[in-house]
Amino acid sequence: MGKWPLDAPWSKCLAQAPEGESLVLGLMSGTSLDGLDCCLARIAHGRQLPWPYEIVEAVTFPYSPDFQERLRLSPSLLPDDLMALDAELGLIWGKWVLDFLNKGHAGNPHRTGRPLLLASHGHTVCHRPGSGYSLQIGSAAQLHAITGLPVVHDFRNGDIALGGQGAPLVPMGDALLFGDYDACLNLGGIANISWGPKPTVDEAPLRHACDLSFCNTALNFFASLAGLRMDTDGHLAAQGQRQEELLGRWSSAIWYRQQGARSLDTAAFQAQFWDTALADRFSPQDLCYNWCLHLAEVLERSMTPVAKTQAGKILVSGGGAAHPVLMHALQQNLDWHLVQAEPKVRDFKEALVFGLLGLLHQLDLPNVLGCSTGSSTNHRSGILCG
C-alpha cells in the first residue's frame, strides 16, 4: 500500500502520473438498494487540475423487489449463506456488465475500446470501522472471470487499517474532478459532503469531508409505509406538516454526539432514528417532510463553521438532488449556492468516482485522502483481482 504524507503537495502526489487518458468502468451499489450503477468514463490524467473527464455511457440495472429484500436482510445471514450471496451477486453483476459493454443500454455497441479496468465499490453489508472492518459483497473473482477485465475492489479496509473510517472515499474524486466547486454534497442513501480550497499542484490535497445523516435510506423507508418504492418528485413530502416532536427526536440521536472522524452504517437508522410506534402516530407524508427539514438542519450545523471563512458553490448529486422538497429545504437553510449536477453526473457521480479510484490504483497514485477519512496518510487503497 503506497503512502504519502498528508501535507505532500499535489505536485509530489501526481509526479508519476503519465499524461494521457484512460477508459474505466465504475460500479456502485448503494444503500438505497435501487440497483447497480455502471459508469463508463474516459478520464484524462496528468499534472493539470482538475482532471477532465467524459461520461461515455451510464446505466442502472435495477434489482427486483425480491432481491432488494435479500440484500436488505444480508447483515443477518449466516456465513455460508452470505458467501453464497456474494458469489451470486458477482455473477449477476458480471453478466450485466458484459451486456452493458457489448451492447450498451440502447442496444448499440459503445465502440470506445476495451476499458483499462473495472472498479467495484461492492454492496455494503456492514460498516464497522470501530471494530476494524467494513464488508462489501459482489465477488470480484466472478466479475473478473466473466468480463475478463482487471477488477479493483475492497477500497475501504485499507483505510480502516491505517486508522481511518474507510469513508467517505468520494472526496478524492471531488478534489480531482470537481475541484472548481467549493463543496460537493451527495444525497444518496447516506448524505455526505466534502469541502476545501480549489486544488493547485503546489498545495496539499486538502479536502475535509463527513457523513451527515441518512437521506434516501430514510425517505425510501418512509415511502414504503405508503406502499411506494420511493417519494418520487417529493409528492409525499409536499403534503406533510412540520412536527416538532419528530425533529427533536431525530436531532437527539447518538450519531450527532460523536466527535472526530465518523461514518454511518445503515443499521444505525433502525437503531437510532426509528421506532415502529412512529408509524402509528405520524403519516408517511409527515415523516418524509420532516426528514427533509431535519437533513437541512444537519447540513446547516455542519457547514456554519465553514461558511465563516468560505462560502460558495455546492455541487449536489445523488438521487436526493431530484427531490424538490428536500432541495428547497436545504437551500432555505444554507447561504451557499446549491448547483444541481447535470443528470448523468447527478445519478452516476459515485460510480464515476470509483472508476477514478480504480484508475489511481492502477497508476500507483493515492486514491484516499487521509484528511477526509481520518487516516494517518494519503494512500493507495484497494485490491486488484486479475
In short:
By secondary structure, the chain is an alpha/beta fold. It is built from 14 helices and 14 strands.
How many distinct beta strands? 14
**Terminal Cα span:** 17 Å
- Please write the CATH class name of the largest domain: Alpha Beta
CATH superfamily label of the largest domain = ATPase, nucleotide binding domain
Name the overall outline: globular
Radius of gyration: 20 Å
Structure class: alpha/beta
Fraction in helix: 25-40%
Tell me what the CATH architecture of the largest domain is: 2-Layer Sandwich
Q: Give the CATH topology of the largest domain.
A: Nucleotidyltransferase, domain 5
* Count, helices: 14
Largest sheet, strands/sense/barrel: 7 strands, mixed
Number of domains: 2
Helices and strands, in N-to-C order? Answer: EHEEEHHEEHEHHEEEHHHHHEHEHHEE
Beta-strand content estimate: 15-25%
Low-confidence runs of at least 5 consecutive residues: none
Mean pLDDT: 92
Compile the SSE list and pairings:
Blueprint: E1 3-4, H1 10-13, E2 20-29, E3 35-45, E4 53-62, H2 65-72, H3 79-103, E5 117-128, E6 133-137, H4 140-147, E7 151-153, H5 156-161, H6 171-177, E8 183-187, E9 190-195, E10 208-214, H7 216-224, H8 244-251, H9 267-273, H10 277-281, H11 284-307, E11 313-317, H12 324-333, E12 337-340, H13 343-362, H14 370-373, E13 378-379, E14 383-385
Parallel strand pairs: 2-5, 5-7, 8-11, 11-12
Antiparallel strand pairs: 1-13, 2-3, 3-4, 5-6, 7-14, 8-9, 9-10
Helix pairs in contact: 3-4, 6-13, 7-11, 8-11, 11-12
